[in-house]
């Protein structure tokens, strides 16, 4: 992982959907958005190539996180599809976090000893953002 990049990772969810817990760089997400045809809405399918694990849920979970973080906004009155938002506020918040006393090392997910790998994957969704070093 690059020291000056922001990464996202699914760490947990409240439902039973499977997902990948791979780290994905914000730069890679932005590149995937750049490959989208002009005038087409941003949908979770364009994020699928960012994951080696092939869970169909992970791109949609990541899209929801990006929306919650203000990096995507609804596309007009359409029920599906988003457009990119100005990342300035998000980047400013990350820079503030980096300059604070908050530890910046992310902990790897821990599996309960009584869990099997299948059970450990169930019930995950929340995103875990981590930075190492400075942003962009």
Mind sketching the topology for me?
Blueprint: E1 6-12, E2 24-25, H1 26-34, H2 57-68, E3 72-74, E4 82-84, H3 88-99, H4 117-121, E5 126-131
Antiparallel strand pairs: 1-2, 1-5, 3-4
Describe the structure.
Residues 102-136 are annotated as: Disordered. The chain is an alpha+beta fold. It has one domain (6-101). The chain contains four helices and five strands, in the order ββααββααβ. The protein has helices at 26-34, 57-68, 88-99, 117-121, and strands at 6-12, 24-25, 72-74, 82-84, 126-131. The protein has a three-stranded antiparallel beta sheet.
Count of helical stretches: 4
Q: What structural class results from the helix and strand content?
A: alpha+beta
Tell me, rounded to a whole number, the average pLDDT: 76
Number-wise, the strands total 5
Q: Cα-atom Rg, whole angstroms?
A: 16 Å
Low-confidence stretches: 110-136
Give me the strand/helix succession: EEHHEEHHE
Q: How are the strands of the biggest sheet laid out side by side?
A: 2-1-5
How would you characterize the largest beta sheet?
3 strands, antiparallel
Based on CA inertia axes, which overall geometry fits? globular
Percentage of residues assigned to helices: 25-40%
């Amino acid at each position: 992982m690059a020291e000056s990049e922001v990464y996202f990772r699914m760490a947990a969810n409240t439902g039973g959907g499977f997902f990948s817990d791979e780290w994905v760089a914000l730069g890679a997400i932005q590149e995937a958005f750049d490959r989208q045809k002009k005038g087409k809405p941003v949908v979770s399918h364009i994020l699928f190539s960012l994951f080696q694990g092939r869970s169909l849920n992970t791109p949609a979970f990541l899209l929801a996180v990006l929306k919650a973080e203000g990096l995507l906004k609804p596309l007009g009155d359409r029920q599906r599809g988003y457009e990119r938002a100005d990342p300035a506020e998000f980047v400013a918040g990350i820079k503030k976090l980096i300059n604070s006393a908050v530890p910046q090392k992310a902990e790897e997910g821990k599996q309960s000893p009584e869990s099997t790998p299948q059970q450990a994957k169930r019930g995950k969704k929340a995103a875990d953002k981590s930075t190492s070093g400075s942003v962009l």
